[in-house]
Amino acid sequence: MDIRTLGFVTINILWGVATGLMAWLSRIFPTCLPRGLLCRQKKSDSHRLGQLAEQLAARFLLRRGYSVLGRRVDYGVGEMDLVMVDHVCRPSQVVVVEVKALRRIDYRRPEASVGPAKLRRLQSAGIDYIKRHHLQQVDLRIDVIAIHWPHGAWRPDVRYIKDCN
Predict the structure, then answer these.
(1) pLDDT by residue (tens digit) across 82-94?
(2) Which domains, from first to last, does the chain contain?
(3) Beta bridge partners of 28
(4) pTM (two decimals)
(5) In the chain, which ranges are continuous DSSP H helix?
């Protein structure tokens, strides 16, 4: 074993001992370490619901003959949840899919939060995506997938709204 490898091994061992000692101290004396120093930041329930809803929406569309071009595509002022190609339509269309999910529906449905301003932003982002990836011979369409997944339910209610342009 050369000296460099020995140094990395020693550093890793010391790091493990130090973090173990800090974890032990934080259990014995909870006020001696700053709060959250050893704890990972947990993702919020709504963030996890959004990620799960995007995965569900992608599977939903893949079963219907679409193919994925991108997920969570950043376009400056926001992000497009899914960018897909609809091969069923002739000619093929690039589809920007906005996924909205809610646990409870008290006074509005998930798709109600996609207003005209959001649709305009998605339209301009989709056009920019088409230009950036040299896909000028295809049409653009904006779809919304609304998912209502109450606590304790096995399956969510999925509504697919095509062509919101």
Answers:
(1) 999 988 877 778 9
(2) 1-41 (no CATH), 45-161 (3.40.1350.10)
(3) none
(4) 0.69
(5) 3-28, 45-62, 116-132
